Amino acid sequence: MSFGMFGKMINLVLPFIIRTIILQKMGAEYAGLGSLFISILQVLSVAELGFSSAIIFSLYRPVAENNRQEICQWLTLYRRIYHIVGISILGAGLVILPFLRFLIHGSYPENINLYILYLIYLTNTVISYFAFSYKNAILIVYQRRDILSLIEMAVNICRSAIQIMILLTCNDYYLYIIWLPIFTLITNLLVEYVTKKKFPELVCEKKVKKEKLDEISDQIKGVAIGKISFVARNTFDSIILSALCGLHTVAMYSNYYLVLSSVGALLAVVIQSMNASIGNSIAVEEIDKNKADHDKFDFYYMWIVGWCTVCMVCMYQPFMNLWVGKELVFPFHTMVLFCVYFYINQLSQIRSIYSEAAGLWWKFRYITMAEMAANFFLNFIMGYFWEADGIIFATIITAFLSSFVGITIITYKSYFKSSAGEYFYNNIVYAVVTFVVALLAMRICGYVKRPDISGLLYHLSICAFFPNIVYLGIYMLMPRYRLFIREMIHMLYRKTVRR
After folding, report:
1. What are 129-158's pLDDT values in tens digits?
2. If DSSP states are collapsed to H, E and C, what string results for the chain?
3. What is the model's pTM?
């Protein structure tokens, strides 16, 4: 987790630098165009249908039992699926090619050929499915995400250095973007080399038996529906904004979303680092033990999420003013919606690890299909009337009702065999405490309103300590949460002082 966090921080700083250069040297329309193409290809990537999650779920038990033959069989299936997915995405991407112009409201950069640029992005997406990316699963299930983090960090540093040099010297967007597929290929080749060296016994050799496929058929269908719903929630926003409002609004939205997703990516390191351990625990431990762990992990995680949300509320606007300038800054209420959007998206992350590890995707099919339809409908309706505000609010509504309420109830009923009432109560407490802390922190930060770096640093100094002190004081007054805090302190003591 710690190694992944370090690598992720480096990998997130570099895109900020690159986006800043593009905004300053080329303009917001170039940034908006890149965001639009990425969103389109994320929609096309729905062809993957979440097979990777189903395969990784199927690998937990054979890895725990050291069943090499079964592991190799699953890898063979995984490779074949990825080849089919790559062909499907390529075909769908070429079908969309003639309609690109209709997805952009208003103008776009005159010296850019939309179709050539799109084909480069399409190549970058497709190439992974043919170049060993399925072998990521080996490192994931064997809890070696630190290796993946190292590879990603090294490749991103090299690629970003070349791209920054090109933007500063040549100012050529084609030359800048062509390095994406090149370094994607390099990443996959490095993963292939490392997995072959560390796990030489794991090779694709035999087909999975039909009865094995039948065992996970429902999981695969459930993952597919969930994947489509996730795409509808997170990637249609930029496409709809582009069609309704134009590339300038897409650029503004994408700037804010980059901050939100960057914080989310750091938290994702925590989630990803826990996946394999929890998957193993689901396979070998009792339900009561896993439920107790779930409640404890959820408390720790929502403390971190709450702190991040407070930091965003206090620092979002000052940072955006310094980074992109006032002309690309949304009003205060839109910023607050982004913060709520972030918090809602993170609400059920711990629960989702247990849901996936327990293989419950098929049980969520009706809720996820309803979320997908509602999100698409509300995005268009609310986006038409309220533009970015409407689209963000539509996503908040559907994500809250589907992921936090509906899927949580099913998870508790199907796996934990209990009511979700206590979980909802705890998260209401976490949300109320975060709201109060955010108001207090904003009040303190409001004493200094300087629009320069010193004002941002003042806000940072307040947010670094004040929210956590208040969280500690409030939660220590509650016996249940006090126990979690004591366990955390005891664990940190064993990991640091005794060592």
Report:
1. 777 777 777 787 777 777 887 888 888 889
2. CHHHHHHHHHHHHHHHHHHHHHHHHCCHHHHHHHHHHHHHHHHHHHHHCCHHHHHHHHHHHHHHCCCHHHHHHHHHHHHHHHHHHHHHHHHHHHHHHHHHHHHCCCCCCCCCCHHHHHHHHHHHHHHHHHCCHHHHHHHHHCCCHHHHHHHHHHHHHHHHHHHHHHHHHCCCHHHHHCHHHHHHHHHHHHHHHHHHHHCCCCCCCCCCCHHHHHHHHHHHHHHHHHHHHHHHHHCHHHHHHHHHHCHHHHHHHHHHHHHHHHHHHHHHHHHHHHHHHHHHHHHHCCHHHHHHHHHHHHHHHHHHHHHHHHHHHHHHHHHHHHHHCHHHCCCHHHHHHHHHHHHHHHCCHHHHHHHHHCCCHHHHHHHHHHHHHHHHHHHHHHHHHHHHHHHHHHHHHHHHHHHHHHHHHHHHHHHHCCCCHHHHHHHHHHHHHHHHHHHHHHHHHCCCCCCCHHHHHHHHHHHHHHHHHHHHHHHCCCHHHHHHHHHHHHHHHHHHCCC
3. 0.74
